[in-house]
UniProtKB/TrEMBL annotation:
Residues 57-165 form the MobA/VirD2-like nuclease domain. It comes from Berryella intestinalis. Residues 166-188, 376-417 are annotated as: Disordered. The lineage of its organism: Bacteria, Bacillati, Actinomycetota, Coriobacteriia, Eggerthellales. InterPro entries: Endonuclease_MobA/VirD2 (IPR005094). It comes from the Bacteria. This is Relaxase. Residues 173-186, 380-390, 406-417 have a biased composition (Basic and acidic residues).
Length: 417
């Protein structure tokens, strides 16, 4: 079945165009309702498309209609970025993918400016489409609004099957009986004791270089839990990374949080399904510990900016690298580039310089250095001040958790709109 992943864009489309077309990796481009339109310019040479400034045109259109301004106190959603990934087993060609992607985009957004960029930069070289839709409806002058977002994916599955491709059935499976649910609730042990848990399907998809929404959520939660000093801050960071959080059912086998992508609310996973350290109980214990690892405040600001940018651009490769580097820093308690060298020197003295831990440290140091995400060294006085401030911030956990509960309720209400 094809996978459709939506991402909300905020601000200019200059960044998303730069990301999609950098290093000449665009296999092809399709445009609609722009200065170039596939339905009219059929005889124009294909290579001329690289000169179409579709980002500039989209930004100018929104500015003309005033659609860059906040809406009801919330930052403006200026465009939607959909990633359409065909089923690898269908062995779809670029021409077939372009026809399917264009037909789907025009079915739902016939009066919006559309730019589709095609890539094959994955492990198996399978083409996939990045569909960027500007928020302004040129016919009505209104902002983009999808009343039933789930219809976008349902229609894609139907359209795939009509073309002889595999598609997910839109018929709902019968729910489990009450007896089965009651039996599950008798079990009160965690699903796994592994820090990170990957199911068979996720392992297979990841091995093939494909996208897994569970892995996407795990990377964002990993970043949030490592940067947050409290439960309230944890939820605030997740909100910025477009992840919604809710309490699971009171009838569930264990008390846990449910994480979902803001633009893909049907994709939900419990914390312990991601791994033991991602469960609600372990996370709350982490926030209660005054000595839990956390980067310096300056590092957190830079890391958060990079993470939010990766989420908006759908740069999942960079998001995963950032998450892995930060997890390594937490494991080895590294807060500066100088401390990387100290940890590696210790492993070298123990004869473990070729170990997996040493390899992870070197990779994390290279990433953090390349992107300027850590200071060269941390002054002792500065570190002591941060520790004191951190202890003070945890003196009233009940107040923090009350704030976190209010944030979850706000997320739930936004998700229902």
């Amino acid at each position: 079945m094809p996978i459709l992943k939506p991402i909300s864009g905020h601000g200019s489309t200059v960044g998303i165009r730069r990301y999609l077309e950098k290093k000449n990796r665009a296999l092809a481009r399709d445009f609609f309702n722009l200065s170039w339109d596939e339905r009219k310019d059929i005889d124009t040479p294909e290579d001329k498309k690289e000169f179409v400034l579709w980002d500039v045109e989209m930004d100018a259109t929104r500015a003309e209609f005033g659609h860059d301004e906040p809406w009801h106190g919330m930052r403006a959603r200026t465009f939607k970025h959909f990633v359409l990934s065909p089923d690898p087993d269908d062995a779809i060609g670029l021409a077939e993918l372009r026809e399917l992607s264009s037909a789907w985009a025009l079915r739902f957004f016939p009066d919006n400016q559309i730019a589709i960029v095609y890539h094959d930069d994955n492990a198996r070289g399978i083409p996939h489409a990045h569909i960027v839709v500007n928020s302004t409806n040129l016919l009505t002058g209104n902002r983009m609004h999808t009343e039933h977002p789930e219809d976008l994916n349902r229609a894609l599955q139907d359209m795939a099957r009509e073309r002889g491709l595999s598609g997910l059935s839109n018929q709902r499976k019968p729910s489990e009986g009450k007896a089965d649910a009651a039996e599950k609730n008798k079990v009160n042990a965690p699903r796994t004791r592994r820090n990170v848990y990957l199911g068979r399907q996720e392992r297979e998809i990841a091995k093939a270089g494909g996208y897994t929404w569970v892995g996407d959520i795990r990377a964002r939660v990993a970043l949030a839990k490592t940067m947050a000093a409290s439960e309230a801050e944890f939820f605030a960071i997740l909100d910025a990374l477009d992840v919604h959080v809710a309490d699971n059912s009171s009838k569930a086998r264990r008390d846990d949080w449910i994480f979902s992508l803001a633009d893909w609310p049907s994709k939900k996973v419990s914390g312990e399904r991601l791994g033991y350290t991602y469960g609600k109980q372990m996370l709350q214990r982490r926030f209660d510990r005054s000595g839990a690892y956390r980067p310096t405040e300056k590092s957190i600001d830079e890391i958060r900016k990079r993470a939010e940018n990766a989420v908006e651009l759908n740069d999942l490769e960079d998001l995963s690298k950032l998450s892995a580097a930060l997890e390594t820093c937490a494991k080895f308690d590294v807060e500066s580039l100088e401390e990387f060298d100290a940890r590696l020197a210790t492993l070298s003295r123990r004869g473990q310089i070729g170990s997996e831990g040493a390899q992870r440290l070197m990779q994390a140091k290279e990433y953090m250095t390349e992107h300027g995400l850590m200071p060269q060294q941390v002054r002792y006085e500065q570190r002591q001040e941060e520790l004191v401030d951190r202890r003070r911030s945890r003196t009233n956990q009940n107040e923090q958790r009350s704030l976190a509960a209010r944030q979850r309720e706000q997320q739930r209400r936004r998700n229902e709109r």
